[in-house]
């Protein structure tokens, strides 16, 4: 991590996370939303251009659907 254990403590340092950390944050967000909405079995659709498209592509490549 760029700032060690302090990386997630400030919005100022979050901008320096690497792509793997950003994808991990995205995965945590999706799991949290699915849990909070009682939608654990629901599929997630991610699309977009620029940052959204790149995130979708990297998520699909590094975290394929399990099941």
Automatic annotation (TrEMBL):
GO terms classed as biological process: proteolysis
Any one Gene Ontology molecular-function term assigned to this protein's record: dipeptidyl-peptidase activity
Family annotation (InterPro entries): AB_hydrolase_fold, Peptidase_S28
Keyword Phosphoprotein in annotation: no
Organism the protein comes from: Escallonia rubra
Family: Belongs to the peptidase S28 family.
Name by which UniProt lists this protein: Carboxypeptidase
Source superkingdom: Eukaryota
Classification via Pfam families: Peptidase_S28 (PF05577)
Hydrolase found in the keyword field: yes
Keyword line: Glycoprotein, Hydrolase, Protease, Signal
């Amino acid at each position: 991590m760029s700032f060690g254990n302090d990386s997630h403590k400030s919005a100022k340092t979050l901008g320096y996370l690497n792509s793997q950390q950003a994808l991990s944050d995205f995965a945590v967000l999706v799991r949290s939303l699915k849990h909070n909405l009682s939608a654990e079995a629901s599929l997630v659709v991610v699309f977009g251009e620029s940052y959204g498209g790149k995130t979708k592509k990297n998520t699909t490549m590094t975290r394929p659907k399990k099941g």
